[in-house]
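Data deposition worksheet. Section B asks for the primary sequence of the deposited chain exactly as it was used as input, without tags or linkers unless they were present during the calculation. Section C holds the resulting structure in token form. Section D is free text for depositor observations; keep each observation to a single sentence. Incomplete worksheets are returned to the depositor.
Section A, Depositor: J.P.
Section B:
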Amino acid sequence: MMHCPNCMWKDIGKIGANQYYCWKCCIELVVKGSTLSVYQVEEDGSLVSLDDVFSEAERCIEHEQSM
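Section C:
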């Protein structure tokens, strides 16, 4: 099961092909290969990358599944 890398919440909803949304901290997650890209959703609907906030290990899907 996938966890949010920001809040570790398990209530992740699927919003599109390879796109997920954390309902607790309101960030969007996009699966790219074996890595998650993390985005903050702005008021105007635009996305701001948060990838620089999280290490590659934190965004690795294999890391997520081993937790």
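Section D:
Helices lie at 56-59, 61-65.
The two ends are 9 Å apart (CA to CA).
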